[in-house]
Amino acid sequence: MELSRRDFLKVSAAGAAAVAAMDFAPAPAMAQVTFHGGDTALDKFHTTCPYCSASCGQVIAVGNVTKDVYDVYGDVDSPVNNGGLCAKGAGAFQLVTNKRRIGAFAGTHPVNPLFAYDPAYDSTGVAYKRTGNGAWSKMPLPTALDEIATGLVTARGSITPGLTATSNSRHVQFFGSSHMNNEQNYTYRKLIAQFGTSLTEHQARI
Question: What's the pTM?
Answer without folding.
Answer: 0.50
